[in-house]
Write a structure and sequence with these properties.
With 418 residues, the chain is α+β, with helices and mostly antiparallel strands. The chain is 46% helix and 13% strand. The strands form 4 sheets. Strands 5-4-3-6 form a 4-stranded mixed β-sheet. The chain has a 3-stranded antiparallel β-sheet with strand order 9-10-11, with no helix packed on it. The radius of gyration is 27 Å and the shape is globular. The two termini are 43 Å apart.
Length: 418
Protein backbone atom coordinates (compact mmCIF):
# COMPACT_ATOMS: atom_id res chain seq x y z
CA UNK A 1 0.00 0.00 0.00
CA UNK A 2 1.40 3.36 -0.96
CA UNK A 3 0.53 6.52 0.96
CA UNK A 4 2.19 9.66 -0.38
CA UNK A 5 0.45 12.10 1.91
CA UNK A 6 3.17 12.37 4.55
CA UNK A 7 2.05 15.89 5.50
CA UNK A 8 -1.55 14.77 5.91
CA UNK A 9 -0.73 11.59 7.77
CA UNK A 10 2.21 12.62 9.97
CA UNK A 11 1.76 9.60 12.22
CA UNK A 12 2.59 7.25 9.34
CA UNK A 13 6.28 7.24 8.34
CA UNK A 14 5.48 5.91 4.86
CA UNK A 15 7.16 6.81 1.59
CA UNK A 16 6.15 6.24 -2.03
CA UNK A 17 8.36 3.14 -2.09
CA UNK A 18 6.36 1.44 0.68
CA UNK A 19 4.27 -0.65 -1.68
CA UNK A 20 4.82 -4.16 -0.28
CA UNK A 21 2.16 -5.36 2.19
CA UNK A 22 3.20 -6.39 5.69
CA UNK A 23 4.65 -9.90 5.79
CA UNK A 24 3.03 -11.32 8.93
CA UNK A 25 -0.31 -11.16 10.72
CA UNK A 26 1.26 -9.19 13.56
CA UNK A 27 2.73 -6.53 11.30
CA UNK A 28 -0.50 -6.45 9.27
CA UNK A 29 -2.49 -5.68 12.41
CA UNK A 30 0.00 -3.02 13.47
CA UNK A 31 -0.06 -1.48 10.01
CA UNK A 32 -3.86 -1.39 10.00
CA UNK A 33 -4.08 0.06 13.49
CA UNK A 34 -1.57 2.79 12.62
CA UNK A 35 -3.44 3.67 9.42
CA UNK A 36 -6.83 3.83 11.13
CA UNK A 37 -5.42 5.94 13.95
CA UNK A 38 -3.86 8.41 11.52
CA UNK A 39 -7.05 8.68 9.44
CA UNK A 40 -9.16 9.25 12.58
CA UNK A 41 -6.93 12.22 13.44
CA UNK A 42 -7.49 13.98 10.10
CA UNK A 43 -9.73 17.02 9.73
CA UNK A 44 -12.58 17.02 7.20
CA UNK A 45 -10.44 19.02 4.77
CA UNK A 46 -7.60 16.53 5.12
CA UNK A 47 -9.98 13.61 4.58
CA UNK A 48 -11.28 15.10 1.33
CA UNK A 49 -7.81 16.06 0.11
CA UNK A 50 -6.53 12.60 0.97
CA UNK A 51 -9.40 10.95 -0.87
CA UNK A 52 -8.71 13.02 -3.96
CA UNK A 53 -5.12 11.79 -3.94
CA UNK A 54 -6.17 8.20 -3.17
CA UNK A 55 -8.72 8.07 -6.00
CA UNK A 56 -6.18 9.57 -8.37
CA UNK A 57 -3.63 6.91 -7.43
CA UNK A 58 -6.29 4.19 -7.68
CA UNK A 59 -7.24 5.30 -11.20
CA UNK A 60 -3.57 5.38 -12.22
CA UNK A 61 -3.05 1.86 -10.91
CA UNK A 62 -6.19 0.60 -12.66
CA UNK A 63 -5.00 2.19 -15.90
CA UNK A 64 -1.71 0.31 -15.67
CA UNK A 65 -3.58 -2.91 -14.82
CA UNK A 66 -5.85 -2.49 -17.85
CA UNK A 67 -2.89 -1.82 -20.14
CA UNK A 68 -1.12 -4.95 -18.91
CA UNK A 69 -4.27 -7.03 -19.23
CA UNK A 70 -4.61 -5.85 -22.81
CA UNK A 71 -1.19 -7.33 -23.47
CA UNK A 72 -2.13 -10.51 -21.61
CA UNK A 73 -5.15 -10.79 -23.92
CA UNK A 74 -3.10 -10.23 -27.08
CA UNK A 75 -0.51 -12.84 -26.05
CA UNK A 76 -3.17 -15.16 -24.56
CA UNK A 77 -0.80 -15.45 -21.59
CA UNK A 78 -3.74 -16.55 -19.41
CA UNK A 79 -3.59 -19.96 -21.10
CA UNK A 80 -0.25 -20.68 -19.40
CA UNK A 81 -2.22 -21.27 -16.17
CA UNK A 82 -5.14 -23.13 -17.69
CA UNK A 83 -7.64 -20.25 -17.84
CA UNK A 84 -10.07 -19.89 -20.73
CA UNK A 85 -10.16 -16.08 -20.75
CA UNK A 86 -8.36 -13.06 -19.37
CA UNK A 87 -11.25 -12.17 -17.04
CA UNK A 88 -11.51 -15.72 -15.62
CA UNK A 89 -7.75 -15.75 -15.01
CA UNK A 90 -7.80 -12.33 -13.30
CA UNK A 91 -10.68 -13.31 -11.00
CA UNK A 92 -8.91 -16.48 -9.87
CA UNK A 93 -5.32 -15.20 -9.87
CA UNK A 94 -5.87 -11.89 -8.09
CA UNK A 95 -8.98 -12.57 -6.01
CA UNK A 96 -11.28 -9.94 -7.52
CA UNK A 97 -14.95 -10.35 -8.43
CA UNK A 98 -15.91 -11.55 -11.89
CA UNK A 99 -17.58 -8.19 -12.80
CA UNK A 100 -14.41 -6.30 -11.78
CA UNK A 101 -12.24 -8.71 -13.76
CA UNK A 102 -14.46 -8.34 -16.82
CA UNK A 103 -14.39 -4.54 -16.61
CA UNK A 104 -10.59 -4.41 -16.38
CA UNK A 105 -10.14 -6.95 -19.16
CA UNK A 106 -12.66 -5.17 -21.38
CA UNK A 107 -10.88 -1.83 -21.11
CA UNK A 108 -7.54 -3.58 -21.57
CA UNK A 109 -8.78 -5.17 -24.79
CA UNK A 110 -9.54 -1.70 -26.19
CA UNK A 111 -6.51 0.06 -24.67
CA UNK A 112 -4.17 -0.18 -27.65
CA UNK A 113 -6.53 1.90 -29.79
CA UNK A 114 -7.29 4.49 -27.09
CA UNK A 115 -4.01 6.11 -25.97
CA UNK A 116 -5.67 9.38 -24.88
CA UNK A 117 -8.29 7.75 -22.67
CA UNK A 118 -5.88 5.21 -21.19
CA UNK A 119 -3.29 7.92 -20.65
CA UNK A 120 -5.83 10.06 -18.80
CA UNK A 121 -6.63 7.13 -16.48
CA UNK A 122 -2.96 6.41 -15.83
CA UNK A 123 -2.43 10.11 -15.06
CA UNK A 124 -5.25 9.93 -12.50
CA UNK A 125 -7.33 12.48 -14.45
CA UNK A 126 -10.37 10.27 -15.17
CA UNK A 127 -11.71 7.10 -13.57
CA UNK A 128 -11.66 3.66 -15.14
CA UNK A 129 -15.48 3.66 -14.98
CA UNK A 130 -15.58 6.62 -17.37
CA UNK A 131 -13.36 4.83 -19.87
CA UNK A 132 -15.41 1.68 -19.48
CA UNK A 133 -18.58 3.63 -20.33
CA UNK A 134 -17.00 4.83 -23.59
CA UNK A 135 -14.91 1.80 -24.54
CA UNK A 136 -17.42 0.19 -26.88
CA UNK A 137 -17.95 3.31 -29.00
CA UNK A 138 -14.49 4.92 -28.80
CA UNK A 139 -12.27 4.65 -31.88
CA UNK A 140 -8.76 5.89 -32.66
CA UNK A 141 -10.43 8.79 -34.47
CA UNK A 142 -12.72 9.77 -31.56
CA UNK A 143 -10.29 8.92 -28.76
CA UNK A 144 -9.04 12.48 -28.15
CA UNK A 145 -12.51 14.02 -28.33
CA UNK A 146 -14.00 11.48 -25.94
CA UNK A 147 -11.06 11.91 -23.56
CA UNK A 148 -11.89 15.60 -23.28
CA UNK A 149 -15.54 14.72 -22.66
CA UNK A 150 -14.55 12.21 -19.97
CA UNK A 151 -12.80 14.95 -18.00
CA UNK A 152 -15.93 17.11 -17.98
CA UNK A 153 -18.87 14.71 -17.64
CA UNK A 154 -20.11 12.15 -15.13
CA UNK A 155 -20.15 8.39 -15.76
CA UNK A 156 -23.91 8.54 -16.24
CA UNK A 157 -23.64 11.32 -18.81
CA UNK A 158 -20.89 9.46 -20.65
CA UNK A 159 -23.04 6.32 -20.75
CA UNK A 160 -25.73 8.37 -22.47
CA UNK A 161 -23.13 9.68 -24.93
CA UNK A 162 -22.17 6.09 -25.69
CA UNK A 163 -25.78 5.00 -26.18
CA UNK A 164 -26.46 7.92 -28.50
CA UNK A 165 -23.31 7.26 -30.47
CA UNK A 166 -24.08 3.54 -30.79
CA UNK A 167 -27.63 4.27 -31.97
CA UNK A 168 -26.36 6.81 -34.51
CA UNK A 169 -23.84 4.41 -36.00
CA UNK A 170 -26.27 1.50 -36.17
CA UNK A 171 -29.24 3.53 -37.42
CA UNK A 172 -30.92 2.25 -40.55
CA UNK A 173 -34.44 2.39 -42.01
CA UNK A 174 -36.64 0.00 -40.10
CA UNK A 175 -33.97 -0.86 -37.51
CA UNK A 176 -32.67 -4.42 -37.19
CA UNK A 177 -34.02 -7.02 -39.60
CA UNK A 178 -35.96 -10.04 -38.34
CA UNK A 179 -32.99 -12.27 -39.08
CA UNK A 180 -30.67 -10.02 -37.05
CA UNK A 181 -33.10 -9.96 -34.12
CA UNK A 182 -33.34 -13.75 -34.29
CA UNK A 183 -29.54 -14.05 -34.14
CA UNK A 184 -29.43 -11.88 -31.01
CA UNK A 185 -31.94 -13.97 -29.03
CA UNK A 186 -30.92 -15.52 -25.72
CA UNK A 187 -32.17 -16.79 -22.36
CA UNK A 188 -29.67 -16.84 -19.49
CA UNK A 189 -29.99 -18.32 -16.02
CA UNK A 190 -28.27 -17.18 -12.83
CA UNK A 191 -28.53 -20.07 -10.36
CA UNK A 192 -27.04 -18.05 -7.50
CA UNK A 193 -29.77 -15.38 -7.69
CA UNK A 194 -32.46 -17.61 -9.25
CA UNK A 195 -33.02 -15.07 -12.02
CA UNK A 196 -33.57 -15.32 -15.77
CA UNK A 197 -32.64 -12.76 -18.43
CA UNK A 198 -34.01 -12.95 -21.96
CA UNK A 199 -33.76 -11.02 -25.19
CA UNK A 200 -36.30 -11.98 -27.84
CA UNK A 201 -37.14 -11.02 -31.42
CA UNK A 202 -39.91 -8.41 -31.58
CA UNK A 203 -42.72 -10.82 -32.47
CA UNK A 204 -41.63 -13.39 -29.85
CA UNK A 205 -41.39 -10.69 -27.18
CA UNK A 206 -44.89 -9.42 -27.97
CA UNK A 207 -46.26 -12.98 -27.91
CA UNK A 208 -44.59 -13.85 -24.58
CA UNK A 209 -45.66 -10.60 -22.94
CA UNK A 210 -49.29 -10.97 -24.08
CA UNK A 211 -49.39 -14.59 -22.88
CA UNK A 212 -47.98 -13.80 -19.43
CA UNK A 213 -50.18 -10.74 -18.92
CA UNK A 214 -53.30 -12.72 -19.90
CA UNK A 215 -52.42 -15.44 -17.40
CA UNK A 216 -51.60 -12.91 -14.68
CA UNK A 217 -54.94 -11.13 -15.13
CA UNK A 218 -56.77 -14.45 -14.84
CA UNK A 219 -55.21 -15.22 -11.45
CA UNK A 220 -57.62 -14.50 -8.59
CA UNK A 221 -56.36 -11.76 -6.30
CA UNK A 222 -57.57 -9.82 -3.30
CA UNK A 223 -56.07 -6.66 -4.69
CA UNK A 224 -53.00 -6.96 -2.49
CA UNK A 225 -50.84 -9.20 -4.69
CA UNK A 226 -48.31 -7.07 -6.62
CA UNK A 227 -48.47 -7.22 -10.42
CA UNK A 228 -44.90 -8.56 -10.59
CA UNK A 229 -45.90 -11.48 -8.36
CA UNK A 230 -48.92 -12.28 -10.55
CA UNK A 231 -46.72 -12.22 -13.66
CA UNK A 232 -44.36 -14.63 -11.95
CA UNK A 233 -47.24 -16.94 -11.04
CA UNK A 234 -48.45 -16.72 -14.62
CA UNK A 235 -45.02 -17.69 -15.89
CA UNK A 236 -44.85 -20.67 -13.49
CA UNK A 237 -48.31 -21.77 -14.57
CA UNK A 238 -47.28 -21.59 -18.21
CA UNK A 239 -44.25 -23.79 -17.55
CA UNK A 240 -46.33 -26.35 -15.66
CA UNK A 241 -49.03 -26.44 -18.31
CA UNK A 242 -46.48 -27.54 -20.89
CA UNK A 243 -46.32 -30.91 -19.12
CA UNK A 244 -49.73 -31.81 -20.53
CA UNK A 245 -49.14 -30.23 -23.92
CA UNK A 246 -52.18 -28.02 -23.42
CA UNK A 247 -52.98 -24.51 -22.26
CA UNK A 248 -54.24 -25.58 -18.85
CA UNK A 249 -52.25 -27.00 -15.93
CA UNK A 250 -51.65 -30.72 -16.24
CA UNK A 251 -53.69 -33.11 -14.10
CA UNK A 252 -50.93 -35.72 -14.13
CA UNK A 253 -47.96 -35.54 -11.73
CA UNK A 254 -45.31 -33.02 -12.65
CA UNK A 255 -42.52 -34.83 -14.55
CA UNK A 256 -39.71 -32.47 -13.57
CA UNK A 257 -36.91 -34.19 -11.72
CA UNK A 258 -35.98 -32.70 -8.34
CA UNK A 259 -33.29 -34.01 -5.98
CA UNK A 260 -33.55 -33.34 -2.26
CA UNK A 261 -30.68 -34.42 -0.01
CA UNK A 262 -32.01 -35.40 3.40
CA UNK A 263 -29.90 -36.42 6.43
CA UNK A 264 -31.06 -39.85 7.59
CA UNK A 265 -31.66 -38.36 11.04
CA UNK A 266 -34.31 -36.09 9.57
CA UNK A 267 -36.14 -39.10 8.14
CA UNK A 268 -36.19 -41.38 11.18
CA UNK A 269 -36.89 -38.76 13.85
CA UNK A 270 -40.44 -37.49 13.96
CA UNK A 271 -40.00 -34.67 16.41
CA UNK A 272 -41.98 -32.29 14.22
CA UNK A 273 -39.19 -29.77 14.55
CA UNK A 274 -38.60 -27.51 11.53
CA UNK A 275 -34.90 -27.11 10.99
CA UNK A 276 -32.75 -25.36 8.39
CA UNK A 277 -30.90 -28.61 7.77
CA UNK A 278 -34.02 -30.71 7.07
CA UNK A 279 -32.83 -30.93 3.50
CA UNK A 280 -30.88 -29.39 0.66
CA UNK A 281 -32.50 -28.62 -2.68
CA UNK A 282 -29.96 -29.45 -5.35
CA UNK A 283 -28.68 -26.38 -7.27
CA UNK A 284 -30.26 -24.09 -4.66
CA UNK A 285 -29.56 -24.30 -0.95
CA UNK A 286 -30.71 -25.34 2.51
CA UNK A 287 -34.44 -25.88 2.97
CA UNK A 288 -36.67 -26.61 5.94
CA UNK A 289 -39.11 -29.46 6.48
CA UNK A 290 -42.10 -27.54 5.13
CA UNK A 291 -40.30 -26.89 1.86
CA UNK A 292 -39.37 -30.56 1.54
CA UNK A 293 -43.08 -31.46 1.78
CA UNK A 294 -44.07 -28.79 -0.74
CA UNK A 295 -41.48 -29.95 -3.28
CA UNK A 296 -42.63 -33.53 -2.82
CA UNK A 297 -46.14 -32.54 -3.87
CA UNK A 298 -45.06 -30.71 -7.02
CA UNK A 299 -42.40 -32.84 -8.67
CA UNK A 300 -40.79 -36.21 -9.12
CA UNK A 301 -38.44 -36.36 -6.14
CA UNK A 302 -35.32 -38.41 -5.55
CA UNK A 303 -34.32 -38.53 -1.88
CA UNK A 304 -30.58 -39.05 -1.46
CA UNK A 305 -30.01 -40.37 2.06
CA UNK A 306 -26.63 -39.14 3.25
CA UNK A 307 -24.32 -40.95 5.67
CA UNK A 308 -22.71 -39.37 8.72
CA UNK A 309 -20.11 -37.65 6.56
CA UNK A 310 -22.76 -36.34 4.19
CA UNK A 311 -21.68 -38.60 1.33
CA UNK A 312 -23.96 -40.81 -0.72
CA UNK A 313 -22.10 -43.99 -1.76
CA UNK A 314 -18.80 -45.50 -2.81
CA UNK A 315 -18.24 -47.95 -5.67
CA UNK A 316 -14.44 -48.54 -5.54
CA UNK A 317 -13.36 -50.80 -8.42
CA UNK A 318 -16.79 -52.40 -8.79
CA UNK A 319 -17.71 -50.17 -11.70
CA UNK A 320 -15.88 -47.82 -14.02
CA UNK A 321 -18.54 -45.16 -14.57
CA UNK A 322 -20.09 -43.19 -11.70
CA UNK A 323 -23.63 -44.12 -10.73
CA UNK A 324 -26.48 -41.65 -11.08
CA UNK A 325 -26.42 -41.02 -7.33
CA UNK A 326 -22.67 -40.34 -7.41
CA UNK A 327 -23.01 -37.93 -10.33
CA UNK A 328 -25.70 -36.01 -8.47
CA UNK A 329 -23.57 -35.89 -5.33
CA UNK A 330 -20.48 -34.65 -7.20
CA UNK A 331 -22.54 -31.94 -8.90
CA UNK A 332 -24.01 -31.03 -5.54
CA UNK A 333 -20.56 -30.88 -3.95
CA UNK A 334 -18.73 -28.96 -6.68
CA UNK A 335 -21.63 -27.02 -8.28
CA UNK A 336 -19.37 -25.85 -11.13
CA UNK A 337 -16.12 -26.85 -12.80
CA UNK A 338 -13.54 -27.41 -10.04
CA UNK A 339 -10.68 -25.85 -11.98
CA UNK A 340 -9.88 -22.59 -10.13
CA UNK A 341 -11.56 -19.61 -11.76
CA UNK A 342 -13.87 -21.64 -14.04
CA UNK A 343 -17.63 -21.26 -13.48
CA UNK A 344 -18.72 -23.56 -16.31
CA UNK A 345 -21.70 -25.74 -15.45
CA UNK A 346 -23.49 -26.41 -18.72
CA UNK A 347 -20.62 -28.25 -20.42
CA UNK A 348 -19.21 -30.01 -17.36
CA UNK A 349 -19.22 -33.69 -16.41
CA UNK A 350 -17.95 -36.02 -13.66
CA UNK A 351 -14.44 -37.42 -14.21
CA UNK A 352 -11.88 -39.52 -12.29
CA UNK A 353 -8.90 -37.69 -10.78
CA UNK A 354 -6.79 -40.85 -10.88
CA UNK A 355 -8.01 -42.51 -14.06
CA UNK A 356 -9.90 -45.76 -13.63
CA UNK A 357 -7.68 -47.82 -15.96
CA UNK A 358 -4.47 -47.58 -13.87
CA UNK A 359 -6.41 -48.24 -10.68
CA UNK A 360 -8.46 -45.19 -9.73
CA UNK A 361 -11.56 -45.90 -7.67
CA UNK A 362 -15.07 -44.79 -8.57
CA UNK A 363 -15.41 -43.09 -5.19
CA UNK A 364 -16.43 -39.54 -4.37
CA UNK A 365 -12.92 -38.45 -3.25
CA UNK A 366 -11.64 -39.51 -6.70
CA UNK A 367 -14.47 -37.97 -8.73
CA UNK A 368 -14.48 -34.34 -9.78
CA UNK A 369 -16.75 -32.04 -11.80
CA UNK A 370 -14.78 -30.63 -14.75
CA UNK A 371 -15.75 -28.85 -17.94
CA UNK A 372 -14.65 -30.39 -21.24
CA UNK A 373 -11.79 -27.92 -21.67
CA UNK A 374 -10.26 -28.41 -18.24
CA UNK A 375 -10.78 -32.18 -18.31
CA UNK A 376 -8.57 -32.34 -21.40
CA UNK A 377 -6.15 -29.84 -19.87
CA UNK A 378 -5.42 -31.68 -16.60
CA UNK A 379 -4.56 -34.85 -18.51
CA UNK A 380 -1.93 -33.14 -20.68
CA UNK A 381 1.78 -33.40 -20.02
CA UNK A 382 2.92 -30.72 -17.62
CA UNK A 383 -0.33 -30.69 -15.61
CA UNK A 384 -1.11 -32.61 -12.42
CA UNK A 385 -4.22 -32.83 -10.24
CA UNK A 386 -3.91 -34.56 -6.88
CA UNK A 387 -5.79 -34.76 -3.60
CA UNK A 388 -9.15 -35.63 -2.12
CA UNK A 389 -12.04 -33.99 -4.00
CA UNK A 390 -14.11 -33.96 -0.81
CA UNK A 391 -11.44 -31.89 0.93
CA UNK A 392 -8.79 -30.21 -1.24
CA UNK A 393 -7.35 -30.64 -4.71
CA UNK A 394 -3.94 -29.36 -5.78
CA UNK A 395 -3.44 -28.41 -9.42
CA UNK A 396 0.01 -27.59 -10.81
CA UNK A 397 0.60 -26.42 -14.37
CA UNK A 398 3.64 -26.05 -16.61
CA UNK A 399 4.54 -22.69 -15.04
CA UNK A 400 4.91 -24.32 -11.62
CA UNK A 401 2.15 -22.26 -10.01
CA UNK A 402 0.22 -24.24 -7.40
CA UNK A 403 -3.57 -23.77 -7.42
CA UNK A 404 -5.96 -25.12 -4.80
CA UNK A 405 -9.59 -26.15 -5.31
CA UNK A 406 -12.07 -26.92 -2.54
CA UNK A 407 -15.72 -28.08 -2.50
CA UNK A 408 -18.49 -25.50 -2.52
CA UNK A 409 -18.97 -23.64 0.73
CA UNK A 410 -22.60 -24.80 0.97
CA UNK A 411 -21.69 -28.47 0.66
CA UNK A 412 -18.99 -28.06 3.30
CA UNK A 413 -21.45 -26.33 5.61
CA UNK A 414 -24.13 -28.99 5.18
CA UNK A 415 -21.79 -31.94 5.66
CA UNK A 416 -20.20 -30.29 8.68
CA UNK A 417 -23.67 -29.82 10.17
CA UNK A 418 -24.41 -33.51 9.67
Amino acid sequence: MSLRRATILPAMPLTPTDVAPPATAVTTAAFGAELLSAVAAESNEELVAGLEEDFSQMAAAQGRVAARLGEVERREAFRDEGATSTSAWVAERFGVSVPTARALAHVGEKALDLPHLVGAVCAGQVSLDKVRALADVATPESDQELCAAAKEHSVRELAEVARTSAARHSARPGGLTSAEQHERRFVRFNDALRTMTAQLPAESYAEAKACLETRAKAIATDGQTPWDHRLCDGFTGMVRSSASGGSEPAESPNPYFVVVHVPIKALVEESGQTTELAGELEHDGLIDGATVKKVACDATVVVAVDDKAGHTMYEGRARRFPSGAQRREVRRRDRECRFPGCANVTFAEVHHIVEWKPGGGTDLPNLVFLCEFHHRLVHRNGWTMTGNANEELTIVGPTGRVMVSRPSALWTRVTAGQ
